[in-house]
Amino acid sequence: LNYNPSEPPFVTYYVPFIGSMIEFGIHPIKFIRKYQKIHGNFFTFLMFGRRMTVCIDLDGNDFVFNVKHSNVTAEDAYNSLTKPVFGEGVVYDVPNSMLMEQKRMVKAGLSIENFRAYIPIIIMEVNQYVDKYWTKDEESIDLLQSISEMIIMTASHTLLGPEIRSRLYEGIADLYHTLDSCFTPIHFLFEWLPLPSYYASEKAHAELDSIFANVIAERRKNPGDKHIDMLDALMASKYKNGEPLSDKHVGNMLIALLMAGQHTSAATTTWALLNLAANPDVVDEARKEINRLVGQELKGDSVPEVSYEDVKDFNVLNNVVRETLRIRSPLIQLMRKVVKPVAVPNTNYVIPAGYYIIASPIISSTDEKYYKNAEDWVPSRWNNDETDDSADKNMTDYGFGAMSTSARSPNLPFGAGRHRCIGEQFAYLQIKTILYTLLTRFEFELDPKRGMPERNYQSMVVLPEGPVLCRYKRRATSN
Ligand code: HEM
Q1: 67 CB less than 6 Å from ligand 1?
Q2: What ipTM describes this predicted complex?
Q3: pLDDT tens across 163-190, in order?
Q4: pLDDT tens, residue by residue, 370-403
Q5: Which of 250, 293, 334, 458 could be 234's S-S partner, Cβ–Cβ 3.0 to 4.6 Å?
Q6: Which domains are present in the chain?
Q7: What spacing in Å lies between the alpha carbon of 334 and ligand 1's midpoint?
């Protein structure tokens, strides 16, 4: 009876239309923290004519990730950005119920059987890359660039299959880059502008479509040949009504998966290695555990195959990835659009239709309230972590990562609820296997002039500010 609905408080701005765009764009995390102190966990700011309501801390995370789909949707927020890149008929270009079915189809390509097959491929790809490009005994390299290439190679080979992987050097990598150039905040803000990158990406998309169509057609001609990869899994998948995923949509889904995993996993692997370079004691600990599990001292250029169980049991590396994601989550703004006014539980706030809501789980995952010395990278803080890893019954937990899926957890680098990431287990497998291979062969040191890079907030995925220089040193083989 005391209920007096009102909008969340509005951040004061001085330039009409533009609003707080500049202050937010330069350092979104500083911006959110500053206004959290003034307004609390829900507040709205103006950005280029759009009203964006920031929803943070446990209440904000829970609200954005579990809000009713009838009031608030991801597809209305993301489709203009993702459609030119992914193409039609997949992810945010279909009704939500269909996306849920498509996510189920993807899970078939992320089974334990598949993961077992992916490990030796990942080791082989990383070896091939460093044999070709890291040829000195020691040298400073652009780590982000090297890791990005390793992620493309390993993801393409395991998800898209050997045929497409073998053609990566024939220009497919350039097509990916062209698509990628559409994935910027500019394209979110100026969706109505005929930006040249849209035309380029349409063309790149058409070319990729025809390459995928050929590979799919070849595979359909030889149905007896079984491939353990995402492509085979999607080619065999069906909607509940019995309809298969069309070949075109198989291709679009593969592009979507590659794009979803590329910068996120590349940034995470790069930050993990940079932090390992700055913390040799953690490297020692990781190697001790690895040697114990594989039963020999590993050192030098020959990297033995490891089993799925071994990779799963690399706990130090698990903590390394988890801690890296806590302080350097690559996705710091997850968006939805309000299509019907929505009340924020336990407040008097109602957010009007047309507003965007933003979750930013990194605000809680770096809050001193939840983590001591919250900005420090301390993987051992996850030793004996008791987080309930099985909160989301729809997810299969293969024992990788940290499946904390309750939206009331302060640490949600993979989101929560209906749009939660399906790639977490794959990302952990891929990143841990890359780290295993590199730590066996090399020592790493931060470049003395560059040190630990700052974050670059100019892209949709937060990356380390380049050039990300890091020094590798080849480890002598132990006898
Ligand atoms: C969604 C993070 C890797 C596929 C998401 C979301 C987050 C996230 C936060 C939720 C988006 C939202 O709620 O708006 C990450 C991070 C990764 C990673 C930090 C690596 C360290 C991957 C990989 C794949 C993938 C490797 C594919 C194999 C997806 C898909 C969605 C998604 C398809 C969309 C789900 C939906 O909207 O329902 N990811 N991701 N991700 N992720 Fe990932």
Answers
A1: no
A2: 0.99
A3: 988 887 667 778 888 888 777 777 777 7
A4: 999 999 999 999 997 755 443 333 344 444 544 4
A5: 250
A6: 21-474 (1.10.630.10)
A7: 11
